[in-house]
Amino acid sequence: MGFTIGKGSSIHLGCKFNTPDTFWMGENSTINQFCRIDNRGGIVIGNNVSISPYVKLMTADHDMNHPQCVGRQSEIALEDYVFIGADAMLLGGVRMKKGSVLGAKSLLTKSTEPFGIYLGMPAVLKSQRIQNLDYNASYDRLFN
């Protein structure tokens, strides 16, 4: 597929991508099973990022105010130590800053602040995470 995937990182079974290339993943990061990765606009994932099952990263949409309802694309970037809960969705153009968290079933429409914990539809800042993070988000699943 032409993806760049760093040492110790893994993409688990059932994940779906839209296109070759336009995907970069750092070291020791994990995308769990059955995620939907719309990488047409580009996906950049840092180191030690954990993406839970059924997450959707949507880089493309349509301009509803354009006469021809044209398609548009914009990158999603996930900086180091980002954590995304199960069944969450991120829209194109967002950047999750270092150490930020998106809770399960949340919808992220705007970029986050570093170490912020975001919840809801749309997601809003609820609290702050500790800043001295030093863990490895890589792991092997028994059956992938």
Task: Break the fold down into its secondary structure elements and pairings.
Blueprint: E1 4-5, E2 10-11, E3 16-17, E4 23-25, E5 30-31, E6 36-38, E7 43-45, E8 50-51, E9 56-58, E10 60-62, E11 71-73, E12 76-78, E13 83-84, E14 89-91, E15 95-96, E16 101-102, E17 107-108, E18 116-120, E19 123-128
Explain what the structure shows.
- Helix content is 0%, strand content 37%.
- The protein has 144 residues and is mainly β.
- Strands 2-5-8-13-16-18-19 form a 7-stranded mixed β-sheet, with no helix packed on it. A 5-stranded parallel β-sheet has the order 1-4-7-12-15, with no helix packed on it. The chain has a 5-stranded parallel β-sheet with strand order 3-6-9-14-17, with no helix packed on it.
- A hairpin with an 8-residue loop joins strand 10 and strand 11.
- The model has no long low-confidence stretch (mean pLDDT 96).
User: How many domains is the backbone divided into?
Assistant: 1
| Distance linking N and C termini | 19 Å
CATH class category = Mainly Beta
How many β-strand stretches? 19
- Return the CATH topology: UDP N-Acetylglucosamine Acyltransferase, domain 1
Mean pLDDT: 96
Largest sheet: 7 strands, mixed
The radius of gyration computed from the alpha-carbon positions, rounded to a whole number of angstroms, is 15 Å
Number of helices: 0
Low-confidence stretches: none
Give helix % range: under 10%
* Fourth-tier CATH superfamily name: Hexapeptide repeat proteins
What letter string, H or E per element, gives the SSE order? EEEEEEEEEEEEEEEEEEE
Quote the beta fraction.
Answer: 35-45%
> By helix and strand content, what is the structural category?
mainly beta
Given the C-alpha coordinates, what overall shape results? Answer: globular
Q: Indicate the CATH architecture.
A: 3 Solenoid
Strand order of the largest sheet: 2-5-8-13-16-18-19
